[in-house]
Structures are given as structure tokens and as C-alpha cells.
Amino acid sequence: MSRCRLLLGGRHRESSGPNASLSYTNRGMHLPATQKSASRLSVDRIAAAVDSIDAVFLNSPQFESDALSVELGMRVVLKVETVNPIRSFKGRGAEFFVSQLPHDSRQLVCASAGNFGQGLAFAARKRGIGLVVYAAENANAAKVGRMRQLGAEVRLFGPDFDAAKRKAGEFAKEAGARFVVDGLEPAVSEGAGTIAIEWCRWPAPFDFALVPLGDGALLAGIATWMKAHSPATRMIGVCAAGSPAMELSWRSRELRSTESANTIADGIATREPVPEALTDLRNVVDEIFLVDDNAIIKAMQMAFRHHGLVVEPAGAAGLAAAFTHNDKFRSANVVVPLTGGNMTPEQIRKWLS
Fold first, then answer.
1. Comparing C-alpha atoms, which of 268, 266, 321, 330 is closest to residue 296?
2. What pLDDT score was predicted for residue 39?
């Protein structure tokens, strides 16, 4: 039984403001109105996803960090999503998505900075399904190597994730293969939402959840469950300041794509938001904050220093928000997922030594 409080809670919004130094493109597409319409995501399917996800991704460690709680002046509960075969939470959504495919599925195509590709490769290999992953030419070499080890064919294209994504879509159409877009597929978000089921086993309710925000699948899934089972918990998305397209779009209610994504946090670096993902976030997210790369590095170092955890930049964004916006969380109960730990040896030496 869920131990989250079923209390009515109003939303709290304090504008952090967009990063005015970055240029963006207004694509002229308005997002749907805020009325409570039927969501693409289902609380019932999030609950059902547990039975379809490999147990290796479930029941990840969660614990109160005494050291971080004292240092930051709040009660910090960490959820460690890096202790599994792909070192990230992405296996949850990928497993549930693939489990819902027709039995005669033979070929999938996706774009990935590396972690979603690993998750999809893990799930597809188990079921004998082929996978082609497009990644940027400068993609993390460790992630590319691991995707190939898991059986994916990895093709490098373009200067960033969004360029690779466009190429992946073109190839999938030509090949007649299923194009899987992280943030677009409800099952991916719903699988990720199983993290929130485990949060609700914590003996005390959380005041805030600080969740990294890239394509939106993780935050949408988690927030959908939490707003149903713990509505007083304020759901906070965290974007990299150098990649604010999701924050700009969410705040303005218009799709806004940026000309570049300048951040070390490749896992949450996106220039072109998925419209459906933004709609998924509309009624379940209370605020989105930005954190810069220096704060992200500091968060990575804190996780390593206090707990020996190797967390990649995107995976540490939530923790970075905990101290960057510390005044908003003082004395509160805060839960932070550490969502990925895939780094090259060079990155580990550079940021953690």
C-alpha cells in the first residue's frame, strides 16, 4: 500500500525566468490549454508496468543522506538509479515499452545520447528484436560502446542529439521500421514512473521532488503518479541552463527550440522539445528550474565525496538544484533521483578527481 499522503495541495510557482542570453526559435505552435483533459499517461499502467520490467531495474536504493542533509539544510533522500546493467533509469521505460510491442516486431530505430539507447538495446535483445541507434558524432564513447555491446547497431551522425534524431526518423521511414522517440511513447514515461511507486514506500511524505528534465519522459511518468498519490508533493523539473528549450516551452506554453544546447549534461541536452511530452507535463509539474554546468559538477562531486557514487552530469541535475535554489527547500523533505552514471574514464578524472 502506498504510504504517500492523499492531501489536497495547491501549486506553488516562483518564476526562475528563462536564460535571456540564449537565442531561441518560436515555432508558432501553442500547447493545449491547461484544462484537465484526459492524460496520455495512465496511473493504472504505471502500476502494471512493474510486472513487465526486468527486476534488475526495480527497487533501486533510496536512503536519506545525512551528510547532504546537514550540508544543505534540508532532509535529502537520494534514489540511486545507477546500480543496474545500464547504469541509468532508462531500462524501466524501455522494458515496459518493448513488452507492449506486437509479438512479430522485428526492427526498432531510435536516437539517443546513450542511456535510452542502452535501455532499448537491453530490452530488444532479450526479445530478439533488432535495434539501430543514431547518436551524435561527439556522443559519449562509453555509452556508444555499451550500446554496441548490448547488440545495437550504432550510427553516428550530426553535431548533436537533435540532428541525429532527425536522421533516425528519416532512416526509420525508409526502412519501414518502428521509430521510437523518448518522450513521445506513453509506455516509456509510464515505465519511468515506477520510480514514484517506490518513493511512496518512504515513511514520510516528500515536500519536493527534484527531477532532471530532458525529453520529459522521466518527469512526466513520476509526476503523474505523485500527483495521484501524493498531490502535496511539489514536482520540480531541472534543466541545464545551457539547454533550456523545455523550460522555455513549458513556461511560455509555446514550442520553443534553441539554436544550440551548450551543456556537459548530454543526457538532458535537447534543442527541440516533443510537443506531446510538454502536454504531459502541463498539469503535473509545479516549476522548472535551470542549473549551470558548474553547479552540476559540484553536485557530481558531492555525490562522490559523501557516498562514493559516480553520477554523470545529467544524473546530478536534481542535486544541483537542491543547493542552487537552496532557499526554496530549507528544512523541507526533498527527494532527488540520481538518474545515470555513464562517464568515460577521462570525464571521471576531469570532474571527480
1. 321
2. 83
- Please report the pLDDT score of residue 30 as a whole number: 55
Q: What stretches in the chain show pLDDT beneath 70?
A: 1-38
Q: What is the pLDDT of residue 84?
A: 98
Q: What is the pLDDT of residue 36?
A: 52
Fold agreement (24-31+42-87+189-352, 90-186): yes
Give the list of residues 6+ apart from residue 9 with CB closer than 8 angstroms, or none: 231, 232, 233, 234
Class (C level, CATH) for 24-31+42-87+189-352:
alpha beta
CA distance 246 to 243: 8
> Residue 240 contacts by C-beta under 8 Å, 6 or more apart in sequence?
261, 263, 265, 268, 269, 290, 291, 292, 293, 296, 313, 314, 317
Q: Which residues contact 10 (CB under 8 A, 6 or more apart)?
A: none
Q: Assess contact for 215 and 277: CB atoms under 8 A.
A: yes
Domain ranges (residues) in the chain = 24-31+42-87+189-352, 90-186
At 269-293, the pLDDT tens digits run: 999 999 999 999 999 999 999 999 9
Prediction pTM value: 0.90
Cell of 56: 534488475
| Fold assignment, 90-186 | Rossmann fold (3.40.50)
